[in-house]
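Thread title: Can someone regenerate the structure for this chain?

I was given the following input by a collaborator and told the matching structure tokens would be attached. They weren't. Posting the sequence so someone can regenerate them.
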Amino acid sequence: MQIGTAKSPILLEGWLISKPALSVSSAIPVRGSARIISADGLERLAAERIGKEVLKLLGAPNPAQSVASMRATGVLNQILPGSNDKALAPLIHIEAELGLAPDPILRLGVLGSEDPHARLRLSKQQCKRLEQIGSAVSQGFGATELGYRLKDLAVSAYAASCALLEMNPLPSDVALIKRGQEAVFPVRAADLAPLSGAAIGQKLRDLEGKWITSGFSLSKNELLG
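Best answer:
Regenerated them for you:
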């Protein structure tokens, strides 16, 4: 890697983005034909195009250095205001440790930002996944509850939590997540007659909370007794 100059470009997949008057620690190699634009010129690119390229970059095996260069030049904050890449490199390491494939949406989640849905024109499915992981992380679910509530997304959310909290993942937590994924709440709405309407929903939530707190040990009869 060569030392960057005041006009050193950074590569956002097919785009070379330069920020005059700022230097970066390294220049990122150009692949194929790339177009050089200024950071200020980002606003002229369609959000869909930027979103597509950002997700491609985040889906690379290890984009931490590239994202750090984007931060250094101010491009990252222009694309994703309020973002912070501090947890990105730890997450990449944790993904490998837990056997997770590179996940651009998960990585986007630990970057944090103001309204990434609109800025990157994420699909409804991507938005839902990002919101589920973010909600689980912010609520601080324990490992078993995380597994129960997020099912297939639970290990990814756990990885994000570990990266953001600067914690190492534990095999015991992964085992508890698996236990939660396999748990099935034993009470159904039909079990709560003669309650009806909103009262049923509230009762189910109350009983589910008790069941989770018990470590999934309470039986249906114990919950309804």
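Residues 208 and 214 are 10 Å apart (CA to CA).
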